[in-house]
Automatic annotation (TrEMBL):
Pfam families: HTH_1 (PF00126), LysR_substrate (PF03466)
Domain HTH lysR-type residues, every copy: 1-60
SUPFAM superfamilies, sorted: Periplasmic binding protein-like II, Winged helix' DNA-binding domain
Keywords, comma-separated and alphabetical: DNA-binding, Transcription, Transcription regulation
Organism, as annotated: Cedecea neteri
Protein name as it appears in the record: D-malate degradation protein R
Annotated gene: dmlR_25
Length: 295
């Protein structure tokens, strides 16, 4: 049986993700090409490695035993290749990040643009996703979230200044429906609701002195993207609760008006967060060092 170490690389990635689709995205091939490679490996080994259904992929007992033996070898190879960065003028490698959409657009994009100019041999992969992703389970280097939703066991570094939210609508909407004077008054208005991809509703939070309130709003539209919420407000659907930085150009032009400003103080802004690993890759160490000087 003529099998080389490289023949197991696709197997390890599929086993890690338990998904041909996710593995194909990682590898850069089509799911059918990855599936074909796995079938060829199974034929050579004369043993089934995965149980496949239309909804799930799982390791067989033989596949689990093979993965437990082979995966550490690939980890050792990756670590050894990363250590070669000690002998290069600048490090090479891949950094994988996950970011909420607004954090990625407002803070991460300019950072990565400057970073890649200084480190052209490092590839940065960014997943834009408003879901609360487990970056450890997904084997990502770091994530970008507002500080208040970051788990306490993570290290976190601020990416930018504090943020404020704004409740906005068009002048025409307020002329027709009036303006709320306190947060609970929002329950009498048409509000554009935001819902995470998980299905969890996003609360509208307010704070004044020692008083804190979360208002459960109602309205004719539910979205999963703050840019769309802002567009809906501009089109007169109702009130939107968005980052003030997003709405600022329209507030200045008079296309939108903000209300309840005295209930919306500054909050800790977007942070890069990551697990406290003992041996981060050379590429990610370079990214963290660059972030310190970039700020």
């Amino acid at each position: 049986m003529s099998i080389k170490l490289v023949d197991f690389s696709y197997f390890v990635i599929v086993a890690k993700y338990r998904s041909f689709r996710q593995a194909s995205e990682d590898i850069g091939l089509t799911p059918s090409a990855v599936s074909h490679s796995i079938r060829q490996l199974e034929e050579r080994l004369k043993v089934r490695l995965f149980n496949r259904t239309t909804r799930s992929v799982s390791l067989t007992e033989a596949g689990r035993k093979l993965y437990d033996k082979v995966a550490p070898a690939f980890d050792d190879i990756s670590l050894t290749l990363d250590e070669l960065n000690l002998y290069r003028d600048t490090p090479m490698g891949v950094i994988r990040l996950n970011a909420v959409r607004q954090g990625g657009r407002l803070q991460l994009a300019p950072l990565i643009a400057d970073f890649t100019r200084q480190y052209p041999d490092i590839q940065v992969e960014v997943q834009m996703d408003d879901r609360l992703v487990d970056i450890v389970k997904a084997q990502l280097d770091a994530g970008v979230r507002l500080n208040r939703v970051i788990e306490k066991d993570m290290k976190a570094i601020p990416l930018g200044p504090p943020v404020r939210y704004a409740v906005v609508a068009t002048p025409e909407y307020f002329a027709l429906h009036g303006s709320p004077t306190e947060p609970q008054g929002l329950t009498q208005h048409q509000c554009i609701q935001f819902r995470y991809p998980s299905g969890k509703a996003f609360g509208w939070y307010f704070e004044q002195a020692s008083q804190r309130e979360e208002v459960v709003v109602r309205g004719p539209v539910v979205v999963d993207d703050l840019d769309i919420a802002l567009d809906m407000a501009l089109n007169g659907v109702g009130l939107a609760y968005v980052l003030r930085e997003m709405a600022e150009p329209y507030l200045k032009s008079g296309k939108l008006i903000s209300v309840l400003d005295d209930w919306l103080p500054e909050l800790p802004g977007f942070h890069l967060y990551f697990p406290n690993r003992k041996h981060p890759s050379a590429a990610f160490r370079a990214f963290l060092d660059f972030l310190k000087t970039w700020q």
